[in-house]
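#lab-general

N.A. 3:47 PM
ok so I finally got the sequence cleaned up, no stray characters, all 236 residues accounted for. can someone with queue access submit it? mine expired

B.Y. 3:52 PM
send it over

N.A. 3:53 PM
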Amino acid sequence: MRYYVRNEQRELPETPSFQMYFDPRETAVVSIDMHEGHLSEDPNCPCPAPRGRQLVESIDHFHRAARNLDIPIVHVVSTVRPSGRDDIRGTPAAWRITMPEYFGPIPGAAEHGIEGSEWTKLRTEVDPRDEFVRTKRRLSAFYPTDLDFLLRQMGVKTVVFTGINADCCVLNSSFDASNRNYRVIVPRDLVAGTEPDLEDAGLAIISLFLGLVVKSEDLLSTWYAAMGRETELATA
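B.Y. 4:20 PM
back already:
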């Protein structure tokens, strides 16, 4: 099994501490913010994250392979109340203030994540077995949601994050997961950063302090081997 430390690939040490990360029976995949509010090609897309669009097919494939091993998929969607009281009409999320200073104006930002709007529709595939967390108000998938409660109810000890953005919501969620004593895995080919350099920085921080950064194909092969299953399912 290979992994990445500060974006340099290495062989994973064969120690019990590292091997504990790879038990599929204690694992859930948490997919973050793969919804139209970030991924739509519509010029009115309220908070575009165009680098995330390239992930949809790969994430769908990975999720299908995980479901074949009965690993649960949890889709996390950023939503805010239509009244705006938990965001723009209260204390606004910091990104609404800081990001435009670098990236320029975000014309549709006020529409981002409004509960019930087209922008909260997932772009990735959904299966009847999947779970959903639709109350992500800020950058972490854990705040102020019931994700932690859900994972503990499922007996999950390892969380695999897919989605966007590697330097923002994935990074924040990885901090919160690690601080709650979950083992964190991030497949580097199933997340994207705001920009390539920020993606590299986010993954480097995760690899040093929060968990394991791997390739999805290596993770799937390890899971399938652990379950004594044929690897064709992992690569089909």
